[in-house]
Design goal:
Blueprint: H1 2-17, H2 23-50, H3 61-71, E1 77-82, H4 90-111, E2 116-122, E3 126-133, H5 154-163, E4 167-172, E5 178-185
Parallel strand pairs: 1-2
Antiparallel strand pairs: 2-3, 3-5, 4-5
Helix pairs in contact: 1-2, 3-4, 4-5
Length: 192
């Protein structure tokens, strides 16, 4: 990443400070800088995605989800566990925890909800994490408008779930709230 950023700086300085340069050469340098910036952004996203959240440090997935849930008090969030908790591999725990963080951020930013319920369910063949709110809802079939540009919204949640062999299902309709369900197959659960 540092090499990409250094290269970008050199290309841009060269384009700025050079004696009059043909437009095509300037365009080539700018295209190279844009490509380098894109590579650095992808590297950054990959690093952020792979970081283990502090909430998981030294604790189980249910404890980490509980910490995240109780950090958010507006709107009020309930939390329950169904089934018998089992250990999960770190990448799965990170994907689920990041998913619940993003879902709660979306509720805060968009839902105008009065209440949210987070449920962590241990099934025989899967682990499911649901975030349901009583907010204004939306039409999941309609593409979401431009976001913050972080790449960590619903598409990021889908990608994160897919990376660990899971899935993301969103159920919502205007005026009826939203339910986000993240499911990881049991075969991906680490029983060690």
């Amino acid at each position: 990443m540092a090499q990409s950023l250094t290269s970008i700086m050199l290309l841009l300085r060269s384009a700025r400070d050079a004696d009059p340069m043909p437009a095509e050469q300037v365009r080539d340098q700018l295209d190279s800088a844009i490509a380098g910036a894109g590579a650095a952004l992808n590297d950054t996203r990959r690093l952020v995605h792979d970081l283990t959240p502090a909430e998981l440090s030294g604790c189980s997935l249910p404890e980490a989800v509980r910490r995240v849930v109780f950090e958010h008090s507006d709107p009020p969030v309930g939390f329950r566990i169904e089934g018998d908790p089992i250990p999960v591999a770190t990448p799965i725990a990170v994907a689920l925890l990041r998913g619940v963080q993003e879902a709660l951020a979306n509720v805060r930013s968009h839902a105008r909800a009065g209440r949210v319920q987070v449920t962590l369910t241990y099934l025989a063949d899967a682990i499911r994490l649901d975030v349901a709110d009583d907010g204004i809802g939306f039409d999941p079939a309609v593409p979401v408008g431009p976001g913050t540009g972080s790449g960590l919204g619903l598409n990021g949640m889908r990608a994160r779930m897919a990376a660990v062999g899971g899935s993301l299902v969103i159920e919502s309709s205007s005026g009826c709230g939203t339910a986000v369900s993240m499911v990881v197959p049991g075969k991906d659960v680490d029983h060690d």
